[in-house]
C-alpha cells in the first residue's frame, strides 16, 4: 500500500510493489537514454569515429513507449485503458511501423493490443472477433512467427489468441512445439491450453507435470519472487489445476491423488 497525493487531497490507493519498481526503473532508463544521447552528440562534435556510449533509436523508442505504461501509479482501473493502455499501444504501433521485423517489437506491440482485449477477443460459440484489434493481432503474430518461430513471447501470445478462437489447432505446429522445449514452468504449461481443447489430455497431464517440476526449482532458488505470497504463485497453482483437470478427463485418478499428497 502507498499513499498518493492527488489534487483532491490525500487518497490511499493500492499500489503493488511491481508498479513502483517498474516506474522507478523506467525513470532511470529514460534518464540514462538522455545522458547517452548527449554523450554521443559530444563525441560526434569532437570527431570521434566510434562512440563508446551508443544507444540505438530502437531502444530509445521502446523505453519512451514503456514510460507511458508505467507513469500513472494508482490509476483508477476504469480509466486505465484510455489514459495508459491505448496510448501505450499507439506508441508501440509507431515503433512497430519503423521496426516491423524486430521480434521484441512485434511481441510488445501484440501484447499491448491483447491486454486491451483480455478475454474479449472472440465470441463464444460463434468464434466471431469481438474487437477490431483481433484481425491485426492475428496478422501481426502470424507474420512475426514466420520470421521468429522460436520466440517464446510470440508463441505465448499466439497460444492465448488461438485458444479463444474457433481454430485452436493453429497454435500446435509452431507455438506449442516451441514452448514445450522451454525451461520456464509457465511456458511449459501454456501449450496445455490448446491440448485440453483438442482432447489431448495425456499431453495436458505430461506438460503440467513438467511445469510443476520447473516451478519447484524456481521456488527453491527464489522464494521471494515465487513463494506463496508472490504474484507468480497463482501461475504455479494453475499448473496443478490444469493437471487435475487433465487427469479427470483421461481417467488418471491415481495421478490426482499423488499430486494432492505432494
Write the layout of secondary structure elements.
Elements: E1 2-6, E2 9-13, H1 17-45, H2 57-70, H3 80-98, H4 103-116, H5 133-147, H6 152-163, H7 172-179, H8 185-189, H9 192-198, H10 201-221, H11 223-226, H12 233-250, H13 253-261
Antiparallel strand pairs: 1-2
Descriptive report:
The chain has helices at 17-45, 57-70, 80-98, 103-116, 133-147, 152-163, 172-179, 185-189, 192-198, 201-221, 223-226, 233-250, 253-261, and strands at 2-6, 9-13. The chain is mostly helical. It has three domains: 1-97, no CATH class; 100-179, no CATH class; 184-262, no CATH class. A two-stranded antiparallel sheet has the order 1-2. The protein starts with a strand and ends with a helix.
- The average pLDDT is 86
Output the structural class.
mainly alpha
**Strand percent estimate:** under 5%
Share in helix: 55-70%
Rg (C-alpha, Å) = 22 Å
* Shape summary: globular
Secondary-structure element series: EEHHHHHHHHHHHHH
The largest β sheet comes out as: 2 strands, antiparallel
Q: Going across the major beta sheet, what is the strand order?
A: 1-2
Contiguous low-pLDDT stretches (5 residues minimum) are 1-15
**Count of individual domains:** 3
Total helical elements: 13
What is the β-strand count? 2
**What distance lies between the first and last C-alpha atoms, to the nearest angstrom?**
34 Å
Amino acid at each position: 500500500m502507498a499513499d498518493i497525493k492527488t489534487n483532491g487531497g490525500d487518497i490511499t490507493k493500492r499500489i503493488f510493489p511491481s508498479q513502483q519498481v517498474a516506474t522507478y526503473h523506467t525513470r532511470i532508463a529514460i534518464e540514462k537514454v538522455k545522458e547517452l544521447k548527449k554523450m554521443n552528440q559530444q563525441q560526434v562534435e569532437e570527431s570521434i569515429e566510434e562512440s563508446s556510449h551508443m544507444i540505438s533509436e530502437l531502444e530509445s523508442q521502446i523505453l519512451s513507449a514503456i514510460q507511458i505504461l508505467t507513469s500513472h501509479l494508482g490509476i483508477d482501473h476504469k480509466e486505465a485503458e484510455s489514459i495508459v493502455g491505448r496510448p501505450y499501444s499507439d506508441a508501440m504501433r509507431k515503433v512497430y511501423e519503423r521496426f516491423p521485423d524486430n521480434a521484441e517489437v512485434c511481441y510488445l506491440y501484440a501484447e499491448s493490443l491483447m491486454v486491451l482485449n483480455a478475454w474479449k477477443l472472440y465470441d463464444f460459440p460463434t468464434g466471431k472477433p469481438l474487437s477490431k484489434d483481433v484481425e491485426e493481432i492475428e496478422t501481426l503474430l502470424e507474420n512475426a512467427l514466420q520470421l521468429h518461430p522460436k520466440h517464446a513471447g510470440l508463441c505465448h501470445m499466439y497460444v492465448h489468441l488461438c485458444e479463444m478462437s474457433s481454430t485452436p489447432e493453429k497454435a500446435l505446429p509452431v507455438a506449442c512445439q516451441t514452448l514445450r522445449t522451454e525451461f520456464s514452468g509457465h511456458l511449459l504449461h501454456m501449450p496445455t491450453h490448446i491440448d485440453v481443447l483438442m482432447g489431448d489430455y495425456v499431453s495436458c497431464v505430461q506438460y503440467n507435470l513438467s511445469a510443476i517440476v520447473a516451478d519447484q526449482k524456481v521456488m527453491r532458488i527464489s522464494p521471494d519472487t515465487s513463494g506463496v505470497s508472490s504474484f507468480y504463485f497463482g501461475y504455479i497453482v494453475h499448473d496443478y489445476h490444469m493437471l487435475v483437470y487433465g487427469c479427470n478427463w483421461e481417467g488418471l485418478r491415481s495421478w490426482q491423488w499423488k499430486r494432492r499428497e505432494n
